[in-house]
Specification:
Length: 549
Protein backbone atom coordinates (compact mmCIF):
# COMPACT_ATOMS: atom_id res chain seq x y z
CA UNK A 1 0.00 0.00 0.00
CA UNK A 2 1.36 3.45 -0.89
CA UNK A 3 1.87 6.07 1.82
CA UNK A 4 -1.05 8.07 0.53
CA UNK A 5 -4.44 7.74 2.12
CA UNK A 6 -7.03 6.73 -0.41
CA UNK A 7 -10.39 8.48 -0.60
CA UNK A 8 -13.46 6.70 -1.87
CA UNK A 9 -16.57 8.81 -2.43
CA UNK A 10 -20.00 7.24 -2.59
CA UNK A 11 -22.73 9.28 -4.29
CA UNK A 12 -26.31 8.34 -5.03
CA UNK A 13 -28.53 8.82 -8.03
CA UNK A 14 -32.11 8.33 -9.25
CA UNK A 15 -33.75 7.96 -5.83
CA UNK A 16 -32.92 8.03 -2.16
CA UNK A 17 -33.00 4.90 0.03
CA UNK A 18 -30.86 2.82 -2.33
CA UNK A 19 -28.66 1.80 0.58
CA UNK A 20 -25.52 3.93 0.18
CA UNK A 21 -24.77 3.43 3.86
CA UNK A 22 -24.91 -0.36 3.56
CA UNK A 23 -22.82 -0.40 0.37
CA UNK A 24 -20.24 1.88 2.02
CA UNK A 25 -20.17 -0.28 5.15
CA UNK A 26 -19.93 -3.47 3.07
CA UNK A 27 -17.03 -2.15 0.99
CA UNK A 28 -15.33 -1.02 4.20
CA UNK A 29 -15.85 -4.50 5.65
CA UNK A 30 -14.22 -6.13 2.61
CA UNK A 31 -11.23 -3.78 2.72
CA UNK A 32 -10.93 -4.29 6.47
CA UNK A 33 -11.03 -8.05 6.01
CA UNK A 34 -8.05 -7.72 3.67
CA UNK A 35 -6.14 -6.16 6.56
CA UNK A 36 -6.61 -2.45 5.79
CA UNK A 37 -7.59 0.24 8.27
CA UNK A 38 -10.77 1.85 7.05
CA UNK A 39 -13.14 4.52 8.27
CA UNK A 40 -16.41 5.81 6.85
CA UNK A 41 -17.82 9.29 6.96
CA UNK A 42 -21.28 10.61 6.18
CA UNK A 43 -21.81 14.10 4.79
CA UNK A 44 -25.41 15.21 5.27
CA UNK A 45 -26.63 18.09 3.11
CA UNK A 46 -29.28 19.41 5.55
CA UNK A 47 -28.86 22.64 7.52
CA UNK A 48 -29.33 21.24 11.03
CA UNK A 49 -26.01 21.26 12.89
CA UNK A 50 -26.64 17.62 13.79
CA UNK A 51 -29.62 15.24 13.83
CA UNK A 52 -29.89 15.54 17.63
CA UNK A 53 -32.75 18.01 17.40
CA UNK A 54 -34.58 16.06 14.69
CA UNK A 55 -37.75 14.13 15.34
CA UNK A 56 -37.09 10.41 14.63
CA UNK A 57 -39.88 10.53 12.03
CA UNK A 58 -37.55 12.69 9.87
CA UNK A 59 -34.48 10.49 9.39
CA UNK A 60 -34.93 7.70 11.92
CA UNK A 61 -32.83 7.13 15.00
CA UNK A 62 -30.13 9.50 16.17
CA UNK A 63 -26.94 7.48 16.70
CA UNK A 64 -24.62 8.55 19.53
CA UNK A 65 -20.85 8.04 19.31
CA UNK A 66 -18.33 7.44 22.09
CA UNK A 67 -17.33 11.11 22.06
CA UNK A 68 -20.95 12.18 22.45
CA UNK A 69 -21.75 13.26 18.90
CA UNK A 70 -25.40 12.95 17.86
CA UNK A 71 -25.17 11.55 14.36
CA UNK A 72 -26.93 9.95 11.41
CA UNK A 73 -28.06 6.35 11.82
CA UNK A 74 -25.71 5.24 9.02
CA UNK A 75 -22.86 5.61 11.52
CA UNK A 76 -24.53 2.81 13.44
CA UNK A 77 -24.20 0.58 10.36
CA UNK A 78 -20.55 1.54 10.01
CA UNK A 79 -19.84 0.54 13.61
CA UNK A 80 -21.89 -2.64 13.46
CA UNK A 81 -20.09 -3.78 10.30
CA UNK A 82 -16.56 -2.66 11.15
CA UNK A 83 -16.56 -3.06 14.92
CA UNK A 84 -14.58 0.20 15.13
CA UNK A 85 -15.99 3.24 16.94
CA UNK A 86 -16.78 6.40 14.97
CA UNK A 87 -16.64 9.97 16.23
CA UNK A 88 -17.93 13.47 15.56
CA UNK A 89 -15.57 13.71 12.58
CA UNK A 90 -17.46 10.88 10.88
CA UNK A 91 -20.64 12.92 10.43
CA UNK A 92 -20.71 16.41 8.98
CA UNK A 93 -23.78 18.44 8.01
CA UNK A 94 -24.16 21.57 5.90
CA UNK A 95 -25.14 23.37 9.11
CA UNK A 96 -21.82 22.47 10.70
CA UNK A 97 -19.87 23.50 7.56
CA UNK A 98 -21.58 26.90 7.45
CA UNK A 99 -21.25 27.40 11.19
CA UNK A 100 -17.53 26.86 10.99
CA UNK A 101 -17.11 29.18 7.97
CA UNK A 102 -19.23 31.91 9.58
CA UNK A 103 -17.25 31.67 12.83
CA UNK A 104 -14.01 32.04 10.86
CA UNK A 105 -15.45 35.05 9.08
CA UNK A 106 -16.37 36.65 12.42
CA UNK A 107 -12.85 36.03 13.71
CA UNK A 108 -11.58 37.89 10.66
CA UNK A 109 -9.75 34.89 9.27
CA UNK A 110 -10.75 35.62 5.66
CA UNK A 111 -8.83 38.91 5.74
CA UNK A 112 -11.47 41.06 4.12
CA UNK A 113 -12.31 38.66 1.31
CA UNK A 114 -15.87 38.02 0.12
CA UNK A 115 -16.86 34.67 1.62
CA UNK A 116 -18.38 32.39 -1.04
CA UNK A 117 -19.56 28.84 -1.62
CA UNK A 118 -16.52 28.30 -3.84
CA UNK A 119 -13.87 28.33 -2.44
CA UNK A 120 -14.78 28.83 1.24
CA UNK A 121 -17.61 26.36 1.75
CA UNK A 122 -15.99 23.78 -0.54
CA UNK A 123 -12.63 24.24 1.25
CA UNK A 124 -14.34 23.59 4.56
CA UNK A 125 -15.96 20.44 3.14
CA UNK A 126 -12.58 19.27 1.84
CA UNK A 127 -11.02 20.00 5.22
CA UNK A 128 -13.67 17.87 6.96
CA UNK A 129 -13.04 15.00 4.53
CA UNK A 130 -9.28 15.17 4.94
CA UNK A 131 -9.31 15.51 8.75
CA UNK A 132 -10.04 11.79 8.92
CA UNK A 133 -7.26 11.00 6.47
CA UNK A 134 -4.76 13.24 8.22
CA UNK A 135 -5.11 11.22 11.42
CA UNK A 136 -3.03 8.64 9.52
CA UNK A 137 -4.80 5.89 11.40
CA UNK A 138 -6.42 4.85 8.16
CA UNK A 139 -5.51 3.51 4.74
CA UNK A 140 -8.94 4.29 3.30
CA UNK A 141 -11.51 6.98 4.05
CA UNK A 142 -14.91 6.21 2.55
CA UNK A 143 -17.07 9.32 2.32
CA UNK A 144 -20.77 8.87 1.72
CA UNK A 145 -22.54 11.94 0.36
CA UNK A 146 -26.12 12.08 1.60
CA UNK A 147 -28.97 12.92 -0.75
CA UNK A 148 -29.12 12.38 -4.50
CA UNK A 149 -27.06 14.04 -7.26
CA UNK A 150 -28.94 16.93 -8.75
CA UNK A 151 -30.28 18.07 -5.36
CA UNK A 152 -29.52 21.77 -4.85
CA UNK A 153 -28.31 20.98 -1.34
CA UNK A 154 -25.69 18.44 -2.47
CA UNK A 155 -24.06 20.68 -5.09
CA UNK A 156 -21.24 22.05 -2.89
CA UNK A 157 -20.37 18.49 -1.82
CA UNK A 158 -20.17 17.23 -5.40
CA UNK A 159 -18.06 20.26 -6.25
CA UNK A 160 -15.71 19.44 -3.34
CA UNK A 161 -15.42 15.88 -4.66
CA UNK A 162 -14.63 17.22 -8.14
CA UNK A 163 -11.84 19.41 -6.72
CA UNK A 164 -10.36 16.65 -4.57
CA UNK A 165 -10.41 14.26 -7.51
CA UNK A 166 -8.60 16.86 -9.56
CA UNK A 167 -6.03 17.56 -6.85
CA UNK A 168 -5.43 13.96 -5.82
CA UNK A 169 -6.20 12.08 -8.99
CA UNK A 170 -4.26 8.99 -7.96
CA UNK A 171 -5.85 8.73 -4.54
CA UNK A 172 -9.55 9.35 -5.18
CA UNK A 173 -12.32 7.37 -6.79
CA UNK A 174 -16.07 7.90 -7.01
CA UNK A 175 -18.60 5.12 -6.68
CA UNK A 176 -22.05 6.07 -7.88
CA UNK A 177 -24.97 4.10 -6.54
CA UNK A 178 -27.94 4.04 -8.86
CA UNK A 179 -31.18 2.23 -9.58
CA UNK A 180 -31.95 -0.08 -12.51
CA UNK A 181 -35.74 -0.29 -12.37
CA UNK A 182 -37.63 -3.30 -13.71
CA UNK A 183 -40.66 -2.44 -15.81
CA UNK A 184 -43.03 -5.34 -15.33
CA UNK A 185 -45.20 -4.36 -18.31
CA UNK A 186 -42.19 -4.41 -20.63
CA UNK A 187 -40.52 -7.28 -18.74
CA UNK A 188 -37.28 -5.32 -18.89
CA UNK A 189 -34.63 -3.73 -16.76
CA UNK A 190 -34.17 -0.09 -17.72
CA UNK A 191 -30.81 1.70 -17.80
CA UNK A 192 -31.97 5.18 -18.81
CA UNK A 193 -32.37 6.60 -15.26
CA UNK A 194 -28.78 5.53 -14.59
CA UNK A 195 -27.55 7.17 -17.78
CA UNK A 196 -29.30 10.40 -16.77
CA UNK A 197 -27.94 10.24 -13.27
CA UNK A 198 -24.38 9.81 -14.52
CA UNK A 199 -24.99 12.67 -16.95
CA UNK A 200 -25.98 14.89 -14.00
CA UNK A 201 -22.74 13.95 -12.26
CA UNK A 202 -20.80 14.71 -15.45
CA UNK A 203 -22.47 18.12 -15.69
CA UNK A 204 -20.93 18.77 -12.29
CA UNK A 205 -17.54 17.67 -13.53
CA UNK A 206 -17.44 14.26 -11.88
CA UNK A 207 -16.91 11.04 -13.81
CA UNK A 208 -17.78 8.05 -11.63
CA UNK A 209 -15.22 5.23 -11.63
CA UNK A 210 -17.58 2.50 -10.46
CA UNK A 211 -21.35 2.11 -10.71
CA UNK A 212 -23.17 0.05 -8.13
CA UNK A 213 -26.55 -0.77 -9.62
CA UNK A 214 -29.38 -1.56 -7.28
CA UNK A 215 -31.74 -4.02 -8.93
CA UNK A 216 -34.46 -6.54 -8.21
CA UNK A 217 -33.28 -8.85 -11.04
CA UNK A 218 -29.90 -10.15 -12.21
CA UNK A 219 -28.08 -7.84 -14.62
CA UNK A 220 -27.17 -9.70 -17.81
CA UNK A 221 -23.74 -9.19 -19.43
CA UNK A 222 -25.50 -7.25 -22.21
CA UNK A 223 -27.04 -4.80 -19.73
CA UNK A 224 -23.72 -4.43 -17.92
CA UNK A 225 -21.95 -3.67 -21.20
CA UNK A 226 -24.61 -1.20 -22.20
CA UNK A 227 -24.34 0.66 -18.89
CA UNK A 228 -20.53 0.63 -19.16
CA UNK A 229 -20.60 2.04 -22.69
CA UNK A 230 -23.08 4.83 -21.98
CA UNK A 231 -21.54 5.85 -18.68
CA UNK A 232 -17.79 5.69 -19.53
CA UNK A 233 -16.89 2.99 -17.02
CA UNK A 234 -15.16 -0.32 -17.60
CA UNK A 235 -17.53 -3.32 -17.75
CA UNK A 236 -16.00 -4.85 -14.60
CA UNK A 237 -16.86 -1.60 -12.79
CA UNK A 238 -20.60 -2.16 -13.27
CA UNK A 239 -21.47 -3.85 -10.00
CA UNK A 240 -24.81 -5.45 -9.38
CA UNK A 241 -26.44 -4.86 -6.00
CA UNK A 242 -29.41 -7.19 -5.93
CA UNK A 243 -32.02 -7.04 -3.15
CA UNK A 244 -30.83 -9.10 -0.19
CA UNK A 245 -32.82 -10.77 2.56
CA UNK A 246 -30.60 -9.16 5.19
CA UNK A 247 -28.19 -6.22 5.13
CA UNK A 248 -25.56 -8.58 6.56
CA UNK A 249 -25.53 -10.47 3.23
CA UNK A 250 -24.39 -7.39 1.33
CA UNK A 251 -20.63 -7.72 2.06
CA UNK A 252 -20.82 -11.28 0.74
CA UNK A 253 -22.72 -10.17 -2.38
CA UNK A 254 -20.19 -7.38 -2.95
CA UNK A 255 -17.37 -9.88 -2.58
CA UNK A 256 -18.98 -12.05 -5.28
CA UNK A 257 -19.27 -8.98 -7.49
CA UNK A 258 -15.58 -8.18 -6.77
CA UNK A 259 -16.34 -4.63 -5.66
CA UNK A 260 -13.25 -4.57 -3.42
CA UNK A 261 -11.02 -5.87 -6.23
CA UNK A 262 -12.23 -3.24 -8.68
CA UNK A 263 -11.78 -0.50 -6.05
CA UNK A 264 -8.18 -1.60 -5.43
CA UNK A 265 -7.51 -1.86 -9.15
CA UNK A 266 -8.83 1.69 -9.80
CA UNK A 267 -6.71 3.04 -6.94
CA UNK A 268 -3.66 1.11 -8.07
CA UNK A 269 -3.32 -0.69 -4.77
CA UNK A 270 -1.80 -4.15 -4.82
CA UNK A 271 -3.42 -6.27 -2.14
CA UNK A 272 -1.59 -9.34 -0.95
CA UNK A 273 -4.43 -10.72 1.11
CA UNK A 274 -7.79 -12.06 0.07
CA UNK A 275 -10.74 -10.95 2.21
CA UNK A 276 -11.17 -13.17 5.23
CA UNK A 277 -14.87 -13.22 6.09
CA UNK A 278 -14.79 -16.36 8.22
CA UNK A 279 -16.16 -14.80 11.41
CA UNK A 280 -18.75 -12.88 9.42
CA UNK A 281 -19.90 -16.09 7.72
CA UNK A 282 -20.10 -17.82 11.10
CA UNK A 283 -22.42 -15.07 12.31
CA UNK A 284 -24.54 -15.31 9.13
CA UNK A 285 -24.78 -19.07 9.55
CA UNK A 286 -26.06 -18.72 13.12
CA UNK A 287 -28.39 -15.88 12.19
CA UNK A 288 -29.93 -17.76 9.27
CA UNK A 289 -30.25 -21.14 10.97
CA UNK A 290 -31.83 -20.44 14.35
CA UNK A 291 -32.67 -23.36 16.59
CA UNK A 292 -35.66 -21.61 18.11
CA UNK A 293 -37.69 -18.46 18.13
CA UNK A 294 -38.61 -15.87 20.74
CA UNK A 295 -41.02 -12.96 20.49
CA UNK A 296 -40.13 -9.68 22.12
CA UNK A 297 -42.53 -6.76 22.41
CA UNK A 298 -40.90 -3.43 21.64
CA UNK A 299 -42.96 -0.63 23.14
CA UNK A 300 -42.34 2.82 21.75
CA UNK A 301 -44.11 5.81 20.35
CA UNK A 302 -42.35 5.92 16.98
CA UNK A 303 -42.99 2.30 15.95
CA UNK A 304 -44.62 3.34 12.64
CA UNK A 305 -41.09 4.16 11.47
CA UNK A 306 -38.94 1.20 12.43
CA UNK A 307 -35.76 3.14 11.63
CA UNK A 308 -36.46 5.09 14.83
CA UNK A 309 -35.25 2.03 16.74
CA UNK A 310 -32.63 0.84 14.24
CA UNK A 311 -29.83 0.06 16.70
CA UNK A 312 -32.19 -1.83 19.02
CA UNK A 313 -33.52 -3.97 16.17
CA UNK A 314 -29.98 -4.72 14.98
CA UNK A 315 -28.79 -5.47 18.53
CA UNK A 316 -31.54 -8.11 18.71
CA UNK A 317 -30.22 -9.67 15.51
CA UNK A 318 -26.70 -9.87 17.02
CA UNK A 319 -27.96 -11.18 20.37
CA UNK A 320 -30.35 -13.62 18.65
CA UNK A 321 -27.48 -15.10 16.62
CA UNK A 322 -25.38 -15.36 19.80
CA UNK A 323 -28.22 -17.30 21.44
CA UNK A 324 -29.02 -19.24 18.26
CA UNK A 325 -32.62 -18.06 18.23
CA UNK A 326 -34.56 -15.87 15.85
CA UNK A 327 -35.83 -12.78 17.64
CA UNK A 328 -39.16 -11.67 16.34
CA UNK A 329 -40.02 -8.14 17.37
CA UNK A 330 -43.68 -7.38 18.05
CA UNK A 331 -43.86 -3.62 17.50
CA UNK A 332 -46.39 -2.09 19.87
CA UNK A 333 -47.39 1.54 19.81
CA UNK A 334 -47.28 2.83 23.38
CA UNK A 335 -50.30 5.06 22.77
CA UNK A 336 -52.37 2.03 21.86
CA UNK A 337 -51.58 0.09 25.01
CA UNK A 338 -54.09 0.42 27.87
CA UNK A 339 -54.78 -1.43 31.13
CA UNK A 340 -57.69 -3.10 29.30
CA UNK A 341 -55.83 -4.44 26.29
CA UNK A 342 -52.31 -4.93 27.71
CA UNK A 343 -52.84 -8.63 28.34
CA UNK A 344 -54.18 -9.24 24.86
CA UNK A 345 -51.50 -7.17 23.10
CA UNK A 346 -48.70 -8.78 25.09
CA UNK A 347 -50.16 -12.27 24.85
CA UNK A 348 -47.50 -14.85 24.03
CA UNK A 349 -44.48 -12.54 24.20
CA UNK A 350 -41.31 -13.88 25.80
CA UNK A 351 -39.93 -10.49 26.73
CA UNK A 352 -40.82 -6.81 26.89
CA UNK A 353 -38.55 -3.94 25.94
CA UNK A 354 -39.55 -0.35 26.63
CA UNK A 355 -37.68 1.94 24.29
CA UNK A 356 -35.96 5.30 24.76
CA UNK A 357 -37.89 8.47 24.05
CA UNK A 358 -38.86 11.96 25.06
CA UNK A 359 -42.03 13.60 26.36
CA UNK A 360 -45.28 12.33 27.79
CA UNK A 361 -46.94 10.93 24.64
CA UNK A 362 -47.50 7.21 25.14
CA UNK A 363 -46.23 7.25 28.72
CA UNK A 364 -49.24 5.44 30.19
CA UNK A 365 -48.91 2.58 27.71
CA UNK A 366 -45.25 2.15 28.68
CA UNK A 367 -46.16 2.03 32.37
CA UNK A 368 -48.82 -0.56 31.62
CA UNK A 369 -46.38 -2.77 29.69
CA UNK A 370 -43.90 -2.55 32.56
CA UNK A 371 -46.53 -3.40 35.17
CA UNK A 372 -47.59 -6.40 33.12
CA UNK A 373 -44.01 -7.64 32.67
CA UNK A 374 -43.20 -7.11 36.36
CA UNK A 375 -46.31 -8.82 37.68
CA UNK A 376 -46.34 -11.65 35.14
CA UNK A 377 -42.61 -12.22 35.59
CA UNK A 378 -41.90 -11.79 31.88
CA UNK A 379 -38.28 -10.81 31.14
CA UNK A 380 -38.04 -7.04 30.92
CA UNK A 381 -35.46 -4.68 29.52
CA UNK A 382 -35.82 -0.89 29.81
CA UNK A 383 -33.59 1.54 27.97
CA UNK A 384 -33.20 5.19 28.99
CA UNK A 385 -36.80 6.47 29.09
CA UNK A 386 -37.75 2.79 29.43
CA UNK A 387 -35.65 2.62 32.61
CA UNK A 388 -37.11 5.86 33.93
CA UNK A 389 -40.63 4.54 33.34
CA UNK A 390 -39.74 1.32 35.17
CA UNK A 391 -38.76 3.47 38.15
CA UNK A 392 -42.00 5.47 37.99
CA UNK A 393 -44.07 2.29 37.68
CA UNK A 394 -42.37 0.74 40.70
CA UNK A 395 -42.82 3.91 42.72
CA UNK A 396 -46.53 4.06 41.92
CA UNK A 397 -47.52 0.42 42.15
CA UNK A 398 -45.08 -1.03 44.68
CA UNK A 399 -44.02 1.90 46.85
CA UNK A 400 -47.55 3.27 46.69
CA UNK A 401 -46.63 6.81 45.58
CA UNK A 402 -49.67 7.32 43.38
CA UNK A 403 -48.40 10.61 41.96
CA UNK A 404 -44.81 9.47 41.33
CA UNK A 405 -43.55 10.98 38.10
CA UNK A 406 -40.62 12.09 36.03
CA UNK A 407 -40.33 15.87 36.14
CA UNK A 408 -39.93 15.71 32.37
CA UNK A 409 -43.65 14.92 32.19
CA UNK A 410 -44.83 16.72 35.31
CA UNK A 411 -42.63 19.43 36.70
CA UNK A 412 -44.27 19.70 40.10
CA UNK A 413 -45.12 16.42 41.75
CA UNK A 414 -44.89 15.19 45.29
CA UNK A 415 -42.70 12.25 44.31
CA UNK A 416 -40.27 13.26 41.57
CA UNK A 417 -38.55 9.85 41.37
CA UNK A 418 -36.96 10.87 38.06
CA UNK A 419 -35.70 14.45 38.01
CA UNK A 420 -33.61 16.83 35.97
CA UNK A 421 -29.85 16.40 36.43
CA UNK A 422 -28.29 19.29 38.35
CA UNK A 423 -26.01 20.20 35.44
CA UNK A 424 -29.05 20.48 33.16
CA UNK A 425 -30.84 23.08 35.25
CA UNK A 426 -29.11 26.04 33.60
CA UNK A 427 -29.21 24.62 30.06
CA UNK A 428 -31.26 26.76 27.66
CA UNK A 429 -30.34 25.50 24.17
CA UNK A 430 -31.70 22.16 23.03
CA UNK A 431 -28.96 21.22 20.53
CA UNK A 432 -26.08 19.04 21.76
CA UNK A 433 -26.69 19.82 25.44
CA UNK A 434 -27.87 16.50 26.85
CA UNK A 435 -25.57 14.23 28.88
CA UNK A 436 -24.01 12.62 25.83
CA UNK A 437 -21.47 9.95 25.03
CA UNK A 438 -19.45 7.51 27.03
CA UNK A 439 -19.32 7.44 30.85
CA UNK A 440 -18.13 4.76 33.26
CA UNK A 441 -20.44 2.69 35.43
CA UNK A 442 -19.59 0.46 38.40
CA UNK A 443 -21.55 -2.78 38.60
CA UNK A 444 -22.71 -4.38 41.86
CA UNK A 445 -21.22 -7.81 42.45
CA UNK A 446 -23.71 -10.62 42.09
CA UNK A 447 -26.22 -8.52 40.12
CA UNK A 448 -27.80 -9.70 36.88
CA UNK A 449 -26.08 -6.84 35.08
CA UNK A 450 -22.65 -7.87 36.40
CA UNK A 451 -23.33 -11.45 35.38
CA UNK A 452 -24.33 -10.32 31.87
CA UNK A 453 -21.04 -8.44 31.48
CA UNK A 454 -19.01 -11.43 32.63
CA UNK A 455 -18.55 -10.17 36.21
CA UNK A 456 -16.37 -7.19 35.38
CA UNK A 457 -16.49 -4.31 37.83
CA UNK A 458 -16.41 -1.33 35.49
CA UNK A 459 -18.08 -0.79 32.13
CA UNK A 460 -18.41 2.19 29.80
CA UNK A 461 -21.63 2.95 27.97
CA UNK A 462 -23.06 5.74 25.85
CA UNK A 463 -25.69 8.19 27.04
CA UNK A 464 -28.27 10.63 25.77
CA UNK A 465 -30.51 12.08 28.46
CA UNK A 466 -31.30 15.04 30.73
CA UNK A 467 -33.21 13.32 33.53
CA UNK A 468 -31.96 10.84 36.11
CA UNK A 469 -32.99 8.58 38.98
CA UNK A 470 -33.57 10.76 42.06
CA UNK A 471 -31.08 9.39 44.60
CA UNK A 472 -33.18 10.65 47.52
CA UNK A 473 -35.41 7.65 46.92
CA UNK A 474 -32.66 5.07 46.54
CA UNK A 475 -32.99 3.49 49.99
CA UNK A 476 -36.77 3.12 49.66
CA UNK A 477 -36.49 1.47 46.26
CA UNK A 478 -33.82 -0.95 47.39
CA UNK A 479 -35.74 -1.89 50.49
CA UNK A 480 -38.77 -2.73 48.36
CA UNK A 481 -36.81 -4.85 45.87
CA UNK A 482 -35.62 -2.54 43.11
CA UNK A 483 -31.84 -2.42 43.38
CA UNK A 484 -29.52 0.14 41.84
CA UNK A 485 -26.86 -2.19 40.45
CA UNK A 486 -24.95 0.18 38.18
CA UNK A 487 -23.67 3.52 39.47
CA UNK A 488 -21.51 6.20 37.88
CA UNK A 489 -18.40 6.23 40.11
CA UNK A 490 -17.91 10.01 39.85
CA UNK A 491 -21.41 11.43 40.20
CA UNK A 492 -23.28 8.62 41.95
CA UNK A 493 -25.87 8.70 39.17
CA UNK A 494 -27.91 5.51 38.93
CA UNK A 495 -27.17 3.76 35.65
CA UNK A 496 -28.91 0.39 36.11
CA UNK A 497 -31.85 -0.80 38.18
CA UNK A 498 -33.04 -4.38 38.53
CA UNK A 499 -35.66 -6.26 40.49
CA UNK A 500 -34.64 -8.87 43.04
CA UNK A 501 -37.92 -10.70 43.01
CA UNK A 502 -38.18 -11.35 39.26
CA UNK A 503 -36.47 -13.79 36.86
CA UNK A 504 -35.06 -10.99 34.68
CA UNK A 505 -35.94 -7.32 35.05
CA UNK A 506 -33.05 -5.03 34.14
CA UNK A 507 -33.21 -1.43 33.00
CA UNK A 508 -30.42 0.94 32.01
CA UNK A 509 -30.16 4.71 31.88
CA UNK A 510 -27.57 4.38 29.10
CA UNK A 511 -28.06 3.09 25.56
CA UNK A 512 -26.47 -0.36 25.20
CA UNK A 513 -27.83 -0.70 21.65
CA UNK A 514 -25.25 1.75 20.25
CA UNK A 515 -22.38 -0.55 21.16
CA UNK A 516 -23.76 -3.81 19.79
CA UNK A 517 -21.91 -5.04 16.69
CA UNK A 518 -21.87 -8.23 14.63
CA UNK A 519 -18.56 -9.23 16.22
CA UNK A 520 -19.46 -7.98 19.71
CA UNK A 521 -23.14 -8.54 20.46
CA UNK A 522 -24.03 -6.41 23.48
CA UNK A 523 -23.91 -8.32 26.79
CA UNK A 524 -27.20 -6.86 28.06
CA UNK A 525 -29.01 -7.81 24.85
CA UNK A 526 -27.44 -11.27 24.92
CA UNK A 527 -28.51 -11.76 28.55
CA UNK A 528 -32.01 -10.47 27.89
CA UNK A 529 -32.52 -12.72 24.86
CA UNK A 530 -31.17 -15.63 26.93
CA UNK A 531 -33.79 -14.87 29.59
CA UNK A 532 -36.54 -14.74 26.95
CA UNK A 533 -35.35 -18.08 25.59
CA UNK A 534 -35.64 -19.58 29.05
CA UNK A 535 -39.06 -18.02 29.54
CA UNK A 536 -40.16 -19.37 26.18
CA UNK A 537 -38.99 -22.89 27.01
CA UNK A 538 -40.92 -22.77 30.28
CA UNK A 539 -44.12 -21.23 28.94
CA UNK A 540 -44.51 -22.17 25.31
CA UNK A 541 -45.61 -25.78 25.99
CA UNK A 542 -48.32 -24.51 28.37
CA UNK A 543 -49.45 -22.05 25.77
CA UNK A 544 -49.70 -24.75 23.14
CA UNK A 545 -51.81 -26.88 25.45
CA UNK A 546 -54.10 -23.92 26.16
CA UNK A 547 -54.60 -23.46 22.44
CA UNK A 548 -55.30 -27.19 21.99
CA UNK A 549 -58.00 -27.00 24.65
N1 LIG B 1 -36.36 11.84 27.97
C1 LIG B 1 -35.47 11.20 28.86
C2 LIG B 1 -34.35 12.10 29.32
O1 LIG B 1 -34.07 13.09 28.69
C3 LIG B 1 -34.93 9.92 28.27
C4 LIG B 1 -34.09 10.13 27.05
C5 LIG B 1 -33.90 8.89 26.22
O2 LIG B 1 -34.66 7.94 26.31
N2 LIG B 1 -32.90 8.91 25.36
O3 LIG B 1 -33.73 11.85 30.32
Amino acid sequence: MSDNIKYIFVTGGVTSSLGKGIISASLAKLLQSRGYRVTIQKLDPYINIDPGTLNPYEHGECFVTEDGAETDLDLGHYERFLNVPTSQANNVTTGRIYQSVIEKERRGEYLGKTVQIIPHITDEIKRCIQILGSKSDFDFVITEIGGTVGDIESLPYIEAVRQLKWEKEEDCIVIHLTLIPYLAAAGELKTKPTQHSVKTLLENGVQPDILVCRTEHELSPQIRNKIAKFCNVTPNAVIQSIDASTIYDVPVLMLEEKLDEVVLEKLNVKSKKKPDLKKWMDFLGRYKNPKGRVTIALIGKYVELKDSYKSIAEAFIHAGAANEVAVEIRWIHSEELTPKNAMEKLQGVDGVLVAPGFGSRGMDGKLEAIRYARESKIPFFGICLGMQMAVVEFARNVLGFADAHSTEMKEYTQHPVISLMAEQKTVMNKGGTMRLGSYPCRLSKGSKAAEAYGNVEMIEERHRHRFEFNNEYKAQFEKAGMNCTGINPDSGLVEIVELTNHPYFVAAQFHPEYKSTVMNPHPLFVAFVKATKKYHAQHAPALRMEQAD
